[in-house]
Structure of Protein yippee-like:
Amino acid sequence: MADLVGPRLYSCCNCRNHVALHDDVISKSFQGRNGRAFLFSHAMNVAVGPKEDRQLMTGLHTVADVYCCDCREVLGWKYERAYEETQKYKEGKFILEKSKIVKENW
């Protein structure tokens, strides 16, 4: 009988709190503050900080930093608003930096 394996997850690099599902990855070709980042449709077990306008590589966006709800490590940000029409698809989505997350159940 085969062993049952749970869903592939990403966890906080600091405390291993589960923060996202692999199935929710939209793109792995984003840029974070510290290198590569992934765009996720959803995140879990995270706290969202205050909104602020930031000039990013793709234009002006309203974003909010995203923290691990257990250890408070900053993992990335949530796109709250995109001002350019071509960037609207990002609204409500999450950037998690590759250096801040680790794979689980792979």
The longest strand covers residues 46-56. DSSP finds no helices and nine strands in the chain. The chain has a mean pLDDT of 94.
